[in-house]
Inverse folding.
């Protein structure tokens, strides 16, 4: 094996790849080659570091120097200065006003300091396309331990005691799920990995698949051993091309190393994994719909029971686990259930990955111990709200969840507390909203999503969400009436009670939650015909502040409908009848004289 | 159309379909995967392609049509040379993706889901691309553009014109 004096890790996740990190790697490689350093320095493409809005990200070891927003053209300077002369390139170091000096090392950066990486442990640390790097991080040791030293029921027992719960949304105890499928007698059983990550704004599963695909394969094999299954399927979105590619490579390598296939570790245990692609249907994240889609059919859910543990894929007993859930399994086996159970709160153990997005400074993927407060997430890890704006709400659980407000900032985040606050854990999307976000518009946005994604099988969801959306459209376009609010509530309760699957049962949540916490915004739209956040176009009007207007005519010249008139060097006026509220005048004005009401 | 049995050269598209089926398999569980690869090769999934596939995989055409129309990835209409997909995921929406979409609609004179008359551009709204750190984002032929403002729209169209 070769020894290198330095390792250069470059993120090749979706975010950084979109910013040409692939080209950066190529340039680094060429620069190193040019100087004949290729036997001394190794460049590695890794999975996601999580700090996506600082991308492309590069970390140089052994120092652990953290470079951010590195351009392909920076390669020569980094090689020359850092790798040849040993001086970090200061202009590319992470800098932040809150942090006293230029922070050089990754672990000292606020964004990483409060995190605890378990599921994401290897993301950004190893080359996901090289099985040996995974094995060097004790990869596949847990599988070896299970098949050689433990009975299937002992494996289930460890997972049960760890307190691990499903990370896909509902939070069902994983060990319990396995224990339902294990005793069922059948000639064939299946393990299915649910990688149909559909929540808009959530991308943790994609990151695990891109950054550490072997951990998922190892966990699936462990699950297979525990329940007596010999075949696994990964159902992954076709929209995630990099993840699919890395999974294919990982499966091929694992087969070559005998870690998938027949007689694994000469224990007599057989297990193999295949990929099935999803084709863009949110409902397929629901387990029975996912199974239908895996079988090549329309992804429509069916009533339960029978539960998949008894009759799942092709009518056989099936365990379905989410990607992040699976990524925890090998670590629990290796480190013991006590280690895992020591993290988190009473009923929610371990860590949770959140995708932090929206109106927040540090956008990216974070993993925190259960029980961390929203305040820590938003202000310490997330670096607060941009442009000094005021925090209004954070949406968790995506289109099935609800919003958390300022009064929830200090509650410890876990499954129970989020549900009690009227939201839910969901898959871990966390969208931050500031004072410029209209909560009625956000509720309408989520309902538009669920309405479009409703599969149409059951009427409460198919028709009910449509009716709710129509009412919200009415309110945001300024035609709302007082009875709309009661109608929304009645419809919401009916849809929740009567829908077939979780998509319909949770679809009204964003409306109910915003109605509960931001009823005054709905009322402002209905009674005052005003949108307090200034978002709903139909309720806005643009005006020119006569005191600030210099009469330069720039707005009038750019108005597409010639709604602005006036004399040079005198205040201009907007004709409200002609104005189409495009906002072009406001964008153009150099004096801040155009105001939106 | 008169019968030309024995004399016709097989439609090139169907040769391609045969290759894909050969590679993946004809079992019903491969249907979505097969459709996905056929669409990548042919651009879209018109009725005759679906009929051919129904015969080849021994699945009723109604079932294939049901699957094609169920999933948003599949299209039965030809799409433009360049596909512009604007992410309307939550993170992008909160950061103004709706305005970007309207600007594209205005500049290309099409509505979302439509193709320009010259067949150059198809404008689509899509689900979260997972590049939330760059919000708002869009994807043209697989290339991602991020941190957009409405001022970037003309430049992006220009690049592909």
């Amino acid at each position: 094996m070769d020894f290198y004096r330095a390792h250069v890790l470059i993120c090749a996740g979706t975010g950084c790849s979109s910013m040409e990190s692939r080209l950066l790697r190529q340039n680094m490689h060429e620069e190193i080659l040019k100087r004949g350093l290729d036997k001394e320095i190794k460049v590695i493409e890794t999975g996601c570091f999580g700090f996506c809005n600082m991308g492309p990200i590069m970390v140089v070891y052994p120092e652990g120097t953290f470079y951010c927003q590195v351009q392909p053209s920076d390669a020569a300077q980094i090689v020359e200065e850092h790798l040849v002369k040993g001086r970090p390139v200061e202009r590319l170091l992470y800098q932040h006003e809150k942090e006293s000096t230029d922070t050089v090392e990754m672990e000292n950066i606020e964004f990483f300091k409060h995190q605890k990486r378990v599921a994401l442990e290897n993301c950004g640390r190893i080359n996901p396309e090289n099985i040996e790097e995974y094995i060097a991080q004790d990869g596949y040791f847990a599988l070896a331990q299970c098949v050689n030293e433990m009975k299937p029921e002992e494996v289930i027992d460890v997972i049960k005691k760890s307190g691990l719960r499903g990370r896909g949304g509902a939070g069902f105890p994983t060990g319990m799920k396995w224990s339902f499928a294990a005793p069922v007698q059948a000639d064939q059983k299946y393990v299915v990995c649910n990688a149909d990550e559909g929540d808009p704004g959530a991308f943790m599963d994609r990151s695990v698949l891109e950054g550490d695909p072997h951990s998922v394969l190892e966990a699936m094999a462990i699950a297979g051993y525990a329940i007596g299954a010999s075949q696994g399927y990964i159902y992954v979105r076709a929209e995630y091309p990099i993840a699919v590619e890395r999974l294919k490579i990982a499966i091929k390598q694992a087969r070559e190393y005998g870690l998938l296939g027949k007689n694994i570790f000469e224990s007599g245990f057989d297990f193999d994994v295949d990929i099935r692609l999803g084709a863009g249907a949110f409902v397929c994240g629901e387990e029975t719909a996912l199974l239908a889609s895996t079988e090549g059919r329309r992804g429509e859910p069916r009533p339960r029971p029978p539960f998949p543990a008894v009759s799942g894929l092709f009518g056989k007993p099936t365990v379905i686990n989410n990607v992040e859930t699976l990524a925890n399994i090998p670590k629990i086996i290796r480190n013991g259930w006590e280690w895992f159970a020591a993290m988190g709160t009473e009923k929610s153990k371990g860590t949770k990955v959140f995708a932090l997005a929206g109106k927040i400074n540090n956008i990216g993927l974070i993993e925190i111990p259960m029980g961390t407060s929203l305040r820590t997430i938003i202000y310490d890890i997330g670096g607060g709200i941009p442009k000094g704006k005021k925090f209004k709400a954070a949406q968790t659980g995506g289109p099935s969840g609800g919003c958390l407000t300022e009064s929830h900032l200090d509650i410890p985040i876990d499954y129970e507390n989020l549900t009690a606050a009227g939201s839910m854990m969901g898959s871990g999307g966390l969208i931050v909203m500031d004072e410029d976000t209209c909560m009625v518009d956000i509720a309408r946005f989520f309902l538009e999503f669920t309405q479009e994604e409703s599969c149409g099988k059951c009427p409460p969801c198919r028709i009910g969400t449509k009716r709710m959306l129509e009412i919200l459209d009415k309110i945001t376009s300024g035609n709302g009436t007082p009875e709309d609010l009661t109608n929304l509530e009645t419809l919401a309760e009916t849809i929740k009670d009567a829908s077939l699957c979780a998509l319909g049962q949770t679809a009204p949540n964003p409306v109910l939650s915003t109605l509960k916490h931001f009823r005054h915004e709905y009322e402002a739209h209905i009674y005052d015909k005003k949108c307090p956040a200034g978002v709903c176009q139909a309720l806005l009007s643009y005006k020119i502040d006569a005191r600030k207007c210099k009469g330069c005519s720039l707005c009038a010249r750019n108005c597409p409908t010639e709604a602005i008139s006036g004399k040079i060097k005198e205040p201009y006026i907007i004709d409200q009848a002609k104005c189409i509220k495009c906002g072009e005048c406001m964008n153009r004005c150099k004096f801040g004289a155009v105001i939106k009401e | 159309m008169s019968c030309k049995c024995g004399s016709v050269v097989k439609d090139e598209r169907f040769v391609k379909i045969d290759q894909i089926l050969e590679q993946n398999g004809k079992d019903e569980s491969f249907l979505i995967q097969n459709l996905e690869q056929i669409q990548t090769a042919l651009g879209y999934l018109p009725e005759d392609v679906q009929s051919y596939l129904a015969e080849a995989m021994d699945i009723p055409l109604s079932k294939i049509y049901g699957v094609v129309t169920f999933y948003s990835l599949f299209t039965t209409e030809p799409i433009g040379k360049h596909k512009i997909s604007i992410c309307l995921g939550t993170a992008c929406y909160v950061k103004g993706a709706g305005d970007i979409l309207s600007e594209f609609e205005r500049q290309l004179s099409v509505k979302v889901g439509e193709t320009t008359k010259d067949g150059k551009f198809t404008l689509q709204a899509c689900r979260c691309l997972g590049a939330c750190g760059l919000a708002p984002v869009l994807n043209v032929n697989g290339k991602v553009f991020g941190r957009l403002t409405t001022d970037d729209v003309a430049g992006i169209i220009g690049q592909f014109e």
Remarks:
- Residues 459-476 of chain A form the longest helix (18 residues).
